[in-house]
Amino acid sequence: MRGGTVQINWHETKPVLACDFHPISALLATGGADYDIKLWTTVSNIDQKKAPGVTYHSNLSYHSSAVNAVRFSPSGRSVFCLKTNLSYKGVLFSCSYNCIGLYWMHSWIGNLTISGELLASGADGGELILWKSHTTDAGEVWKVLKSLVFHRKDVLDLQWSTDGAYLISGSVDNSCIIWDANKGSVHQILDAHFHYVQGVAWDPLGKYAASLSSDRTCRIYLNKPSKTKGVEKTNYVCQHIISKADSHMPDESKSTKSHLFHDETLPSFFRRLAWSPDGSFLLVPAGSLKSTPTSEPVNTAYVFSRKDLSRPALMLPGASKPVVAIRFCPLTFSLRGSNTSPFFKLPYRLIFAVATLNSLYIYDTESIQPIVIVAGVHYAAITDIAWSPTGNYLALSSQDGYCTLLEFENQELGSPMSISDSAKENVENSVKEEENKVSKQASPSTRVASNPIRTHICKEKNVDFVHCDLCYDNCQKENWKSCRHVVYAAFQAYEMLLSSTT
């Protein structure tokens, strides 16, 4: 790994408040207090054994105030849903026996409409803009597509849904808004927070959304689709309000409640939380934990398991300064076979970066200790972090007006493995565990009707399918000819497994 603070005039010496990488081209976008968005091309210097750099690409001017968040729409690794007009990463098929399952694609199919061609930017004063990429003879040009108007005060954080159909924003007006990106209109308002909403995150499986506020609460929202005139619409309702945890006095049986998060005196505009790419857990910054009522609070980030989002599953080791942002590397990696206890028993490794006000920690899910620590590179607070789509670059933005860029050599973080392969392996292992569990409880003559899913190979399509037990035998008798394929979310099978094993 090599890196350093890139000594250029990023935003006219003004604070750099946000950064994000394009999901395909690795173009770096930064938002600053100079009211502009700037696009940069990364320059590798790994062969020269030097820190990476950037070259200026273009400038996007439209905002009339400081830009606090920039996020590109998801990559085009999806297909178009014939049933619901949504873009997802897999295929749901339904046969004549009401079977629901998954088609793992062995290659990515590009979506014609959502392919990182949109950029969302949020700014002070409630400004929220969608930009669209256009190809001209002179090169790529980004132009304003829509202005999303409803927030009354500063927009502090943004995130796209996995299919790129929706956008969630958090604001100083104490609300989160879910936007219909295609229509450019408000889809739903979540206004239960009592103070600034400084971070939002969207579950990659589409079932949950999360928000973090300076009112010292993290809210988890569950998607309970509503039907209007027979049309099913996304509808998020608050399922969990996470605020306090028990703290115990020594030699006393009683416990008291203490706050899990910093209050509004935290010296940062941002509390950027993040879901893991597979949706298995949520990482939440701005933690402030007291083990006893009289002890000093410890700065931390919390890990919430998808199986129980009502309370933290564990905490990361305490940092000297508050944690303000978390971002996951978009790649999954094969296991290294570490002897240390992993976060979760996953068939792959996930890597994520945790930024405090003055330092950066990089973790993987196979070890509780950070694998990289970067400190002392900025004179003011870190505001955002971003991974490139290949995982080779990690960018940090800061209020001191500069950005730091880290570059990793190929295989330095590990051996990447495709999400389809890892999801497949996870499904297969979970199915075997479930079958073994049920077979021990059932007599030999008893039909195992509770077995949730089975798999088979479709020779015609050369892909794996997942079947429910009720229709597996029937489909097999018909040589799988009854399966009719329509498009749906790639992670739906993994979601089904998680819910079936809890």
From TrEMBL:
Keywords: Chromatin regulator, DNA damage, DNA repair, Nucleus, Repeat, WD repeat. The keyword Ribonucleoprotein does not apply. InterPro entries: Beta-prop_CAF1B_HIR1, PTHR15271, WD40/YVTN_repeat-like_dom_sf, WD40_repeat_dom_sf, WD40_rpt. Gene3D superfamilies: YVTN repeat-like/Quinoprotein amine dehydrogenase. It is found in: Nucleus. WD repeats lie at residues 148-189. Residues 416-448 are annotated as: Disordered. It holds the Pfam family WD40. Residues 114-413 form the CAF1B/HIR1 beta-propeller domain. This is Chromatin assembly factor 1 subunit FAS2.
